[in-house]
Amino acid sequence: MKEFRLLSTSGILGYGFPEASLKAGLERKPHVIGVDGGSVDPGPHYLGSGKPFCSTMAIRRDLRLMLNAAVRNGIKMVIGTCGGAGGQPHLELVARLAREIAAEDGLNFKLAVIGAEQDPSSIKERIRAKRIRPLGRMPELTEETVDNAVRIVGMMGPEPFMKALEDGADVILAGRTSDPAPWAACAMHAGLPPAPSWYAGKMLECGATPAVPKGHDCLLVTVREDGVECEPTNPERRCTPLSIANHSLHENASPTHHVEPGGILDTSNCTFEALSDRAVYIRGMTWSKTDYTVKLEAAELAGYRATTICGTRDPLLISTVDSFLDTIRKNTEMKSADLGAKPDDYKLIIRTYGKNGVMAEREPVHEVTSHELGFLVEVVAKDQDTASAVLALARTQMLHTDFPGRLCREGNMAFPFSPSDQEAGPVYRFSMHHVVELDDPLELFPIAHETV
After folding, report:
1. What percent of the chain has pLDDT over 70?
2. pLDDT above 80 (res 368)
3. Which of 138, 211, 215, 259 is 20 to 30 A from 239 in CA distance terms?
4. Residue 433: beta bridge partners?
5. 252 and 214 in a common domain
6. Average pLDDT estimate for 125-142
7. Which residues form the Acyclic terpene utilisation N-terminal domain (predicted)?
8. Which has the closest alpha carbon to 327: 395, 403, 379, 387?
9. Range(s) of the domain holding residue 343
10. d(CA 306, CA 423)
11. pLDDT in tens, 177-191
């Protein structure tokens, strides 16, 4: 095929997109409609808890529009990293919604569901075989870390999607996926070279983010033998050489070398040609093969959280806030000890918004002139009861602790909510950012087919 057209509806399934943009995209007769379903950006909670980070209502809305557009027009549809984190509960949620929508709207299609959640015993075998290595500053992976993991996923490449397409799937829903992989898979399955196919995936993974003004909207990318054409379907947006070049730097340590399962996309020699005031053609990308590896991600339980939010505009307290907070921490530690909670049993964190609340000790601006400060007080402990008890003590100390020159004889803080304290439940942390060597790109990712 000399060209292959792919339509991305948004940055994430559930972020929303204008229906008019989808309709405009359909007029260009795309061969594939799709969307990236998730990301690690929202943190480890969603992988650990098995919950989606977009609401089910929002996911259903986007999915209904996409399914109807794809099935009624005979267009393939692909979604990677379903449900936000791509674990089995996330994948099952989106698959269930797809079946419900099909029943409600009278849709019929062949569905492929590709799992990405990993069996801990298999990961241990690969540790013993020395087939797993850490990324960045992560330590070597141990069997203890595997045992502590609540959920482990592998980040699949394009091959499982290509296999599903070969086996006749109309709609493909997948667990954790390299963001560009579903798009690259569809283009390569259609006979296009890997380099422009992967570059197209890089553009499509965030919907219309490569366009200006940025926003969650639809992007049409046409893949050809020698390059890629990008154009948003919303007439209010446009792709420019600068906006495309800017997006090619997205979420990558190197500005030019993008490491993916089985190879590296090199954009060092890319050129950007404006075809109009809304469309850009990119040439010069190359693809080189490497040993086949996929990333492993896991979340483990770190404890249980309780939080409260309060604020002050007392100029005397603000002028001495650092020493005031030191006193809060000391008093809370003493009071907690009376309840049998030792310092090792919990962690008290106070974020001061208006003074280093975002960057904490990394904040380069040290002069504070704010007339008010907000405090997010957080306790993470081994159990919810301890977290809630220590937080209640810290909240009381914030409210009533004396400080030099204090004039108010009542509370120091204003609380926006009643009850002031919120039990946030389990807290997770990422415990794996490792890569595993594979002999077969399909071996970690089972594919189940059904007629819906």
Report:
1. 100
2. no
3. 259
4. 297
5. yes
6. 96
7. 61-208, 237-392
8. 403
9. 301-431
10. 4
11. 999 999 999 999 999
